Amino acid sequence: MIILKNMTILITLLTSLFLTTGCTQKKTVDARATPDLRETTELSAQKIKVFSAEKNGYILVEKVHKTDEEWKKQLEPLSFEVTRKAGTERAGTGKYENNHEKGIYSCICCGNDLFTSETKFESGTGWPSFWQPIAKENVTTNSDHELGYERTEVLCARCGAHLGHVFDDGPKPTGLRYCMNSVALNFQKNNN
Ligand SMILES: [Zn+2]
Fold it and tell me: Model-level pTM?
């Protein structure tokens, strides 16, 4: 009787083990059978929420990853040097320092909206300066010790482009100065 009981327990255990394994295998097969679904899941993991001036609201966009070779094909040499290699354009040489048109400044690399002309001010530094990004989600920051002291680097949240630096000597209401490189930006004038 005891042997029979043990056998029953063993069979029950084996059955449940088989069912569990069966389930796991089925899931794997299902995932393999639907590559599109898996791809969608992977892409959605790389999506970020950013503000779109055109939509006047937040949108989900895919992050942009490219190799240096791909960026070189797309960008002018100076834009590549600044955005992908954290370079700086010479003060006073950028095309947007004295731009007073109304419109939107977006990332030269990926088109992510970054600043509006409403927050641009005369900093006298030789670089286009803003006291606030279009939305905090559209940029990221990073500590930078390149010059031997700490500075806060500003990057595009969508593609990681180096845009410039942010300092705390800006005007009201934020007191911030986003010191940007013209070659990292693309300006689109408002139509209205
Ligand atoms: Zn970008």
Answer: 0.76
